[in-house]
Amino acid sequence: GPAHLFRLAGRCFSFVESTYKYEFCPFHNVTQHEQTFRWNAYSGILGIWHEWEIDNNTFVGMWMREGDSCETKSRQTKVHLVCGKSNKLAYVSEPSTCVYFLTFETPLVCHPHSLLVYPTLTEALQRKWDEAEQLLYDELITDQGYKKILKEIFEEAGLLKATEENEVEKQSKKITLEFETVEKCSKEYRQLSEEIKKLTVLLGQHGIAYKGNSGE
């Protein structure tokens, strides 16, 4: 992510609401501590640093996932980054059960370019993004295809975690020989056809009959 935000690493920021104290430690975790004298007062983890929330090709927040268990799922927290005069937790809510929303104010995000994703990428990934922009401009890919490429770039950069479905899809592509364009598919088909012809001749020279079918 944005290098200038790393100066927040190793620090923690707290916010007290009612009987609860929330603590946000950037790039580490979010915790909640119930400040009462009840025998079973809750104190635990609402999420561990996981990935970025990216919207309109801009970093807008941090996802803290896989916190303490809550019924059938784990607690998770989205920390929204907004411009502020000082570093502080400004707001906490729980929009749905065991999913928390924190607003973190910091002067580190006040510059209009401070949260752009593109500058944080390697040159190779920037080139990949540039190529996707060109393909979209030339109408060779759809808007949906463009977004898919960007998501892959963000995952490759480690900004987003690749989902299990994506991994399964990648493995199936390796097995089924899917191609991005008809041209690539035709080229591969021609190469394989030539290879089969050569092998057929070679088998014939050794007196081995070759019985092929369309499936093979």
UniProtKB/TrEMBL annotation:
Gene Ontology CC annotations of this record: Golgi apparatus
Residue ranges occupied by any DMAP1-binding domain in the UniProt entry: 117-216
Pfam families xref list: PRKCSH (PF07915)
UniProt GO MF annotations: transferase activity
Keyword Signal carried by entry: yes
This protein's UniProt keywords: Disulfide bond, Signal, Transferase
The MRH domain, residue ranges: 10-112
SUPFAM superfamilies from the UniProt entry: Mannose 6-phosphate receptor domain
Name of this chain's protein: GNPTG phosphotransferase
Annotated source species: Sylvietta virens (Green crombec)
